[in-house]
Design a protein that fits this description.
It contains 21 helices and 10 strands. The protein is mainly alpha-helical.
Length: about 625
């Protein structure tokens, strides 16, 4: 099951029409019914695979994730992308299509997991020949992990959910009230994950790669406790994953975002895709529906990749993030990660043997005058006038590399394939666990907390090829890399005295955004830290300073940078105009949960399709 293929399971709900005429029942012999299914071990494995395929939907691990990423301080967009702009500007409603997707798509996987759990405990399952108790327990543990994973997605986006922990047999079973975050955690997520971690294997091999493991359940449990601010429990479970010895940071950051690097040593749980099944099927269509066959690809590259490389560059890295990658993430030339290792050719390294940008910059952003290749093109317009794939004009600054095929292809696949890619979605990886564990121990603030957290932060920085924080701490300070030197006309970064608070700030505002950008974590981080307004205010203030520095307009992004404004100026190399990302978000953002207080943007509102159909709300 290295790549999870779709299995279509049909449950027939038969409506009985009462009339003065006789009832007429017609049974389609080509449709698989419940009575014919769940009869063999193979049926239960097929049902489980169908539950896994529920993780492939765009709102879980594909294109719709781009709207979630757009909410944070890491992404901006152009004003002609009105739908994506609604995510950035927080003008969504309970009828917005992507809000509906974030709500409805997890329930498909939850329903499929509930099918497995319901029928595997039926008396008939006890008599299946050769179906051992260990095999049943493994299937149940995987189904419960999937269910917990999807309910956590709902909590991150809606701060609660309608609890469906039993298979819905009829329409009334679907009409349940909205439950709070605490209720979902206590009734579903915690019991499911504790069961899963007690009954899942440590590893899978061969075609079973991609199934849930003990490490996946334990890491997810630690992450959820972290989101709850339960620092003791978070540290305990995250440390269990670290100390298990099952995982290590991948040698090359790029291995986390390529097909060739799938299921590497850093991977704790990833969602499988392939672009080799059903060529021509759009990357955001997964299920077989009637005569329309689904695929196994995803299409996050469509909003991420550059326009001249077959994408739409709908999601653009903010200037703040671009400057941190360009300036703050400076490389340590003595670090072996900045050189060829063993003569192995890596297309994102600079010939003959040395990088000039950090490892994670290569894996994350294409920046003008950066090094390496972007879809086998140089990063600046050539003397022949041919536009490079990057094309950072129109004030765009940089383009996203993560989850695109830049490292191997001339361009992303064109329509109708919709920039489909077979790169697996890395849902949980060790670098995130390191940073979460560091955060947890800093909040516990025991005597060794600072040094213990620093160990894991520097392990990530060493892999990135940048200078360890210890090298600055030994001199008595921690650089405040999240402050824009360019916008503030600073000759050097401000400095903090080393402390638990300073290191925690560094993790929040430097390491997590640089290491995990565009992977779907940032907005949830800002919300749980209560930092959205503060961050938006800072970014808007720097945006205004940048606009003044380059001589354009604070409100009209179409006004060009004048010649004396020095276009193409290091470190952003902006041309033509300055994109305005934070003017509206800083005004529109209201803290709070719309599903409990009636307003707020920390979470999406439960969509109207649910509240209108479910009279238990």
């Amino acid at each position: 099951m290295r790549k999870i293929y779709n299995v279509v399971l049909a449950i027939l709900f038969i409506s009985v029409l009462n009339s003065c005429q006789d009832k007429l029942e017609q049974i389609n012999p080509n449709v698989l019914t419940v009575d014919q299914f769940w009869k063999t071990e193979a049926d239960f494995n097929a049902g489980l695979i169908a539950a896994y395929s529920g993780l492939q939907f765009p709102a879980i691990s594909g294109t719709t994730q781009a709207f979630g990423v757009m909410r944070s301080d890491l992404c901006g967009t152009e004003d002609w992308y009105s739908v994506h702009l609604s995510a950035s500007n927080m003008t969504w409603t309970n009828s917005t299509e992507y809000v509906e997707a974030f709500w409805s798509q997890p329930y498909i996987g939850i329903f499929r997991a509930n099918q497995v759990l319901y029928y595997i405990d039926e008396p008939d399952a006890e008599s299946i020949e050769g179906f051992t108790n260990d095999e049943k327990t493994s299937i149940k543990a995987q189904a419960r992990f999937i269910r917990a994973f999807l309910y956590f997605e709902l909590l991150k986006n809606f701060n609660g959910a309608v609890i469906q922990d039993q298979l819905a047999i009829n329409e009334e079973d679907l009409r349940k009230p909205f439950s709070s975050r605490t209720e979902v955690l206590e009734q579903v997520i915690y019991p499911d994950l504790h069961y899963a971690r007690q009954n899942l294997t440590d590893t899978w091999i061969g075609d079973d790669l991609g199934r849930a493991t003990w490490g996946a359940a334990t890491a997810l449990l630690g992450k959820i406790y972290l989101h709850q601010g339960a620092w003791d429990s978070a540290a305990f479970y995250l440390n269990e994953v670290i100390q298990s010895g099952l995982y290590s940071l991948a040698e090359d950051q790029m291995d986390n975002f390529t097909e060739e690097g799938e299921f590497n040593s850093e991977s704790i749980f990833e969602i499988g895709f392939t672009d080799q099944v059903n060529p021509g099927v759009a990357g955001d269509r997964h299920d077989d529906i009637l005569a329309n066959s689904g695929g196994e690809a995803q299409s996050i590259a469509s909003p991420y990749a550059a326009l001249y490389a077959g994408g739409y560059n709908t999601n653009l890295g903010t200037y703040w993030l671009q400057e941190m990658f360009t300036v703050a993430d400076s490389i340590d030339r003595n670090n072996v990660h900045n050189q060829y290792v063993g003569g192995v050719y890596r297309p994102h390294l600079v010939a003959p043997d040395l990088r000039t940008r950090s490892n994670r910059t290569y894996a994350s952003l294409a920046i003008e005058h950066g090094d390496g290749f972007y879809f086998e093109d140089s990063l600046s317009t050539g003397a022949d006038g041919i536009v490079a794939k990057l094309n950072p004009n129109f004030g765009q600054g940089s383009k996203i590399k993560k989850y695109t095929s830049w490292y191997k292809a001339e361009r992303e696949a064109a329509s109708p394939e919709n920039a489909r890619t077979g790169i697996n979605w890395r849902a949980i990886r060790l670098a995130d666990v390191y940073l979460m564990y560091a955060e947890a121990v800093l909040n516990l603030n025991h005597p060794d907390a600072f040094q213990e957290a620093l160990t894991y932060v520097d392990a990530i920085r060493e892999r990135a090829g940048t200078f360890p924080l210890q090298s600055f701490i030994s001199k008595g300070y921690i650089p405040k890399y999240d402050v824009s030197k360019f916008a503030n006309s600073l000759s050097r970064y401000p400095r903090s005295v080393p402390s638990v608070e300073a290191l925690l700030h560094h993790i929040q505002m430097v390491e997590r955004p640089l290491e995990l950008c565009f992977e779907g974590h940032r907005w949830n981080d800002l919300v749980r830290w209560g930092m959205v307004q503060e961050v938006f205010n800072d970014r808007r203030e720097e945006e205004l300073k940048l606009i003044a520095l380059l001589g354009t307009s604070a409100t009209d992004p179409t006004i060009p940078i004048p010649a004396d404004g020095n276009p193409k100026r290091y470190p952003l190399y902006l041309n033509e105009h300055v994109r305005i990302d934070f003017q509206i978000p800083v005004q529109n953002y209201i803290p709070g949960d719309p599903n409990s207080a009636g307003q707020g943007h920390d979470y999406f509102p439960v969509p109207a399709i649910e509240t209108e159909a479910n009279d238990s709300f």
